[in-house]
Design brief:
alpha+beta, 5-stranded mixed beta sheet, 4 helices
Length: 406
């Protein structure tokens, strides 16, 4: 009789424990499968955490030049590996291990939310407490000390003299980019002139391009920040701080950039000239994004390295592999002017790293900014890093990304 009671007690314990063990095993299998599949495709900084209400996954895309394409590929892998526990999933996309974008599944049936079952994905630049939880877990395939050699083709042209219709310059600007600690990257670029018709002085020589140290960070979950220090373009060097934050209606966002720059330039690799002047610069304004047509409107007020003030407005239409738009501006002491901006993505659109070996790749895009008044000096803040352009800066826009992950 006692033996029978003991046996019943043992069976009760087994029936209580075995389902939990089975669930844990299924969860571990999903973790292993998902991480292995993401690593095999080249994604980095992969984490996973299961809470009582949801799965939380992080990853970083450095494989696909178009972020929306890379995010779609990663979501397919994550969705196909989802255990059938009915829980939704929150995916946090990072850049240099700093959160950029939250993607959450909705209207999920009880058999799991594999991509075929998920009815909708929502995207947002707001980061909630899920990041605070998952960032403490162990990373798979860290991007620390990843090294890239990126070749940036660059075209310059201007029409400011009467003896020549256009002066033109074509350069190849290879840049060594090294991912350092969380949020940090070093960029060292060399400018190599290939064709020069009318650009004088240093433009005839091999010289330093942008040489910067960049630190990205996030404040209060919603404010995205960046600090850059080093040699910029437009014959400037110094330090710049930029901040941006979406409003409660994420179609609207605020941005500000400020810093101190000096006027100087690299004549050759062993020569750098500085005229002794320093200038406080800033740019601040508001963004509005029209999701239906992927059109971005921007208005901003600025102070330039020339110590002049200006107001600028622009309208940019973003496509999957290109961005094009119009802009107009007025500057104190100068004419009102305008023109267009164009940036086109360059192939290859996928470049996978082999283990931790340095990778050679082309830049995200190539483009131009045309000014109808042919102003002799650029009325813009110096570009912060080698790939800074309208196509690149829109890569984590939640509305643009959602267009390609439906």
């Amino acid at each position: 009789m006692v033996s029978s009671k003991r046996q019943g007690f043992v069976w009760l314990i087994l029936l209580t424990i075995l389902p939990k063990v089975s669930t844990m095993q299924a969860q571990q299998q999903w973790n292993d499968y998902m991480a292995e599949a993401l690593v095999r495709q080249g994604f980095t900084n992969i984490r996973h955490l299961e809470t009582e209400k949801e799965h939380i996954v992080t990853f970083e895309n450095t494989v696909y030049s178009i972020q929306a394409v890379g995010i779609q590929k990663a979501l397919e892998i994550i969705g196909n590996a989802q255990p059938q526990d009915g829980k939704p999933c929150k995916v946090i996309v990072t850049y240099m291990d700093i959160p950029q974008l939250t993607i959450t599944s909705h209207d999920v049936d009880t058999t799991g939310y594999a991509m075929g079952n998920a009815r909708e994905w929502s995207t947002s630049n707001h980061i909630d407490e899920a990041w605070d939880l998952v960032k403490k877990t162990k990373k798979t395939n860290s991007g620390f000390l990843d090294v890239d050699l990126i070749v940036y083709p660059q075209i310059y042209y201007k029409s400011v003299i009467t003896t020549q219709i256009y002066q033109a310059l074509f350069e190849l600007n290879p840049a060594l980019e090294v991912t350092l600690w969380e949020g940090a990257k070093f960029i060292g670029q060399v400018a190599i002139p290939i064709y020069n018709d009318g650009y004088p002085g240093c433009y005839k020589n091999i010289r330093w391009g942008k040489v910067t140290l960049e630190q990205n960070f996030r404040l209060l979950h919603h404010v995205q920040g960046k600090v850059n220090a080093g040699i910029f373009d437009n014959n400037c060097f110094g330090g710049l701080l930029s901040l941006s934050a979406p409003l409660s209606d994420e179609r609207f966002s605020l941005f500000a950039e400020t810093g101190v720059v000096g006027i100087g330039y690299s004549d050759k690799l062993n020569k750098f000239y500085y005229n002794g002047t320093k200038c406080f610069v800033f740019s601040t304004g508001m963004d509005f994004y029209w999701p239906q047509y992927n059109i971005q409107f921007k208005a901003k007020g600025e102070r330039y390295p020339s110590e002049k003030y200006g107001v600028q407005g622009e309208m940019i239409r973003h496509f999957k592999f290109a961005s094009i738009g119009l802009y107009g501006m007025t500057v104190s002491g100068d004419e009102t002017s305008g023109g267009f901006k164009l940036m086109v993505a360059l192939p290859p659109y996928k470049s996978q790293r082999h283990k931790k070996w340095p990778r050679i790749d082309t830049s995200l895009g190539m483009g131009t900014t045309y000014n109808a008044k042919h102003q002799s000096q650029p009325y813009t803040l110096p570009s912060r890093h080698a790939g800074d352009n309208i196509l690149y800066n829109n890569r984590f826009n939640p509305f643009f990304v959602k267009t390609y992950i439906k």
